[in-house]
Amino acid sequence: MRYAQGGGLTPREQRARERIRLQAGERFARGEKTAVVAAVLRVGVRQVEKWRRSWREGGMDALRSAGPMSVERLSPAQWERLVRELAKGPLAHGWDEGRGWTLGRVKTMIGRLFRVGYTVQGVRLLLRRHGWSLQVPAHRALERDDGAVGVWHEEVWPWVKESPRTWAPSSASRTRRVRG
């Protein structure tokens, strides 16, 4: 999700972004050029142009954060309970352990426990705001033979990696640079 759409920024990230906008406002007041402000603050020129327009229309207050784009629907007590329930694992809530916690499962559990509706994307943003991140389990086949994999990497992969060059032309046509 883009920054302008809320982006799921944590409160700390929102404050940091607001500080950058306010620094830009101070530089606008000193008469610095847009490109210079963008380079110093390490943001895009177009973003600085938007900030400058807002600053012209509303001053420094226009650059202040409007707060979170979405209001969290879980109270702190509900969040703590959710964390405890997640720690029990999916098996305790009727799901198999194999897939672990998915966003869909967490969404369903929030609905069951608190009668609060979230979208899958909303669950992702909720978890991110609280410092949770995506975890991808390492699945290995039971039939995996590490010895055979090692042999393949040593003997077969170097041969496969080097693509044989042929005398025949490729099917891609040549392209020319556009003259303008």
Automatic annotation (TrEMBL):
- Boundaries of every Winged helix-turn helix domain copy: 99-155
A Pfam family found in this protein is: HTH_23
Q: Which domain of life is it from?
A: Bacteria
Query: InterPro entries, from UniProt?
Result: Homeodomain-like_sf, Winged_HTH_dom
- Provide the protein name: Winged helix-turn-helix domain-containing protein
Source organism of this protein record = Saccharothrix xinjiangensis
